[in-house]
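Page 47, continued from p. 46.
Same chain as before, 235 aa.
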Amino acid sequence: MADVFGKALQDYHQGKYTEDITTYSSLDEKDSIPLPYLFRDYDQMPILERKALALAKGRVLDIGCCAGVHSLYLQKKGMDVTGLDSSAGVITVCKERGLKSTVNSSIEDFKGDSFDTLLLLMNGIGLAGTLDNLSSFLQHLASLLRPNGQILLDSSDIIYMFDQDEDGGYWIPDSGKYYGEVTFTLEYKKQKSIPFEWLYLDYNTLFNACLSNGLVCELVSSGEHYDYLARLTKK
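Result:
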């Protein structure tokens, strides 16, 4: 499988930036992920990310750490933080940027350790893939928490991407799937990733899933565009 993210981040880190990552989605949209944004500093982070970093405590696991912007910020503050990513190239970049503790693994395969804070930023809950997989995903995250630990995640309700009728209702295709389930393919320098599932989760659906899995879900903050930051704790 082509390590599209890893290759792109390594190129940027090595001063070989010539293009961004192109994304293709099942929403019939072609978009791009600007590489400089993945290396942003604290001042360039959205307010929801800054709030999450302010709430981080104790031993932290940054899940899907990408270029390590959140991990490195917390490390500079003297916190004990580990960056986890399934991309070997991404982890190489994090190490070269000075992140002391890293793990090259998918979150599903990561076991046997515990943390006070799990960070899933940049829509990190999307790693669950599908709504059917959400319960087992949340249970696995909960198994990594220390007593009084917390999960900090942001996501977006993508209902706004669908057409609206005069009564304010939305026209959602009857595909049998939750409307926040999106299939993505990434492309960088003519290399394509295999298609993968990503989950955008509205807050009420997250809240109910937490309720079903023994977790308390608290809405910390709402963004300006259907996005939000949530804090999950064990009951």
